[in-house]
Design brief:
This protein has a single domain, classed as Immunoglobulin-like, CATH 2.60.40. It is 16% helix and 38% strand. The protein has one helix and eight strands. A hairpin with a 6-residue loop joins strand 3 and strand 4.
Length: 112
C-alpha cells in the first residue's frame, strides 16, 4: 500500500514544480501623470501567458474592475514577447487607482 501513495505524492510534487516557472511581475509601483496625458504600465510574464493577460483597475473601497480581458483591446493593451503594456491616453481623474494584471498559464494556474 505504500507504493501507490508514493506515486501520488511524487506526481503532486512534479506538478507543483512545473508551475514554479510561471511568473508575472509588474515593474511600475507609482506613476504620476498630468490630466490629459498618457501613462503606460508594464508587466513581464513567463512565455506561456501569451495573450492570456487581463488588466484590472481597483479604486479605494471598491472591488477590482475588469478593464481588458486577454488583450481584447489592442489599442490599449500590447504584448511583445513576455512584455505586456497597458496604455491609457487622455488621462482623467476617474482613471486614478491601482492597476493589476492577471495572467493565465493554463491548467487553472493564474498569477497576479
Amino acid at each position: 500500500m505504500v507504493f501507490p501513495m508514493l506515486v501520488i505524492l511524487l506526481l503532486g510534487f512534479l506538478s507543483q514544480e512545473s508551475f514554479a516557472n510561471n511568473f508575472l511581475t509588474q515593474t511600475d509601483e507609482v506613476k504620476s501623470v498630468s490630466l490629459g496625458g498618457t501613462v503606460t504600465i508594464s508587466a513581464t510574464g513567463s512565455s506561456n501567458i501569451g495573450s492570456s493577460l487581463s488588466w484590472y483597475l481597483q479604486k479605494p473601497g471598491e472591488t477590482p474592475k475588469l478593464l481588458i480581458y486577454y488583450t481584447s483591446k489592442p489599442d490599449r493593451a500590447l504584448r511583445s514577447g513576455s512584455q505586456h503594456t497597458l496604455s491609457i491616453s487622455d488621462l482623467q481623474a476617474v482613471d486614478a487607482g491601482d492597476y493589476y494584471c492577471v495572467g493565465y498559464h493554463g491548467s487553472e494556474v493564474f498569477t497576479q
